[in-house]
Amino acid sequence: MLRSLNLSGNRLRELGPGLARAAPQLQTLLLSGNCLRALPGGLLPAGASGLLPLLSQLEAADNGLQELDAGIADLPALKTLDVSNNQLTEIPVELADCPKLKEINFKGNKLKDKRLEKMVNGCQTKSILEYLRVGGRGGGKGKGKQDNVDKEEGRKKKRERRQKKDSGDGEQDELEEVNKLLIKVLHISENLAPLVIKVSPNIKEVRPFIVCCVVKGMNLKPGNALKRFLSAQTKLHEDICEKRTAATIATHDLQLIKGPLLYDAQPPNDLKIIPLGRKEIKAKDLVRQLQLEAEEQRKQKKRQNISGLHKYLHLLDGKENYPCLVDAEGAVISFPPITNSDKTKIKKSTSELFLEVTSGVSLQICKDIMDMLILKMAELNKFTLENKEEVSVSDDESDVISGPPNLNPSQTVHHENTPLIVEQVRVVDIDGNLKVLYPSKTDLTMASSLLTVIR
């Protein structure tokens, strides 16, 4: 049986389904240096299924490819995809449906989505796939992107219906819409006491971009719901936040916050915070303490890699002032990209969260990451609802991050059509002039089979 085929360096212009049918056990297909214009193209014709079920490595660099089509998702074993140095302008959202994909190379293509183009040149595969999975702008802007998304949603639903029918479980299909989780945007005009963030001029040269919002209705009481939420935040920091170099997420207990808030920059010797799980300390001393802990960690493990907050210390190198978010009582509740305050940490009883995303790179990155965080929260809330875990009142896991407010027992009952409420939050300059409003009409537009946004 043929398991590896190298067709590189020929003048192939197209591929036909005959190859797939003649080599059903094929695992490696090398097509670099040809004249192909589309992939998979004719290799996997529309309507054909089950072809190349074992193909795990597909290389088609230096071809002049102009299209990577949705058929790529019909390669269930695909682990490595190299389409570098081609003429691709879009990456299909379907790529995120490849369940085993671990390594992709899109370098040397001029993508319409410049954020995505930057990511393919420097990010891990997981970050890129997560960006596509939540909508991103992988298909470019406007109607073309939405058409691709709509087609993919239809295609996935057809596959799911077919699988359910084959297993005699077709009745579940009708429940999908009922179980779909909703997000309701509460506008500033509807909020009697909206939270406002003022931005100090001092922050401009330090970490200038911030986006905030409030989320209500999160259920963290049952089972491991809180652990899953904190774990999801950590994964976002590692992937789409690019190990906090692109942006940093912070989550707080809304009921423990006194507004309005001030986003400021302070000298390390003046900035004081109660870090998670620690006593109040000056930022200068905290950084020094973490540096010493990092050195001790290196000695004990006899390696260069360090973990925890220690691996983010270099992001403060060369900073004369440190960024911080300060409440109306003068208490620092956030010190990005290092830590939140223990004062506003998340507990299992938390249901109303104040979310912040800060960046030294761009405002759009803050918005994209906030979109992904809210989507992930919706997915986690849905998972918690469907799994009906036993409610726990212990706050043992609350020493990891900071989060939202307490919920009385009558509020913890979640129904399928009960939406998460996302309240708009304004960021203004020191004179009250609007800088950012999130979510605006152009935010939270990502595609998800789990999510409907009511505006």
TrEMBL record:
SMART domains membership: B3_4 (SM00873), LRR_TYP (SM00369)
GO BP term (any one): phenylalanyl-tRNA aminoacylation
Stored Pfam families: LRR_1, LRR_8
Alphabetical list of SUPFAM superfamilies matching this protein: L domain-like
Keywords attached to this entry: Coiled coil, Leucine-rich repeat, Repeat
Signal peptide: none
Occurrences of domain B3/B4 tRNA-binding (ranges): 206-382
GO MF term (any one): RNA binding
Compositionally biased intervals (Basic and acidic residues): 144-155
Stretches assigned to coiled coil: 280-307
Renumbered residue ranges of the record's region Disordered: 134-172, 394-413
Protein name: Leucine-rich repeat-containing protein 47
UniProt lineage: Eukaryota, Metazoa, Chordata, Craniata, Vertebrata
Designated gene of the protein: LRRC47
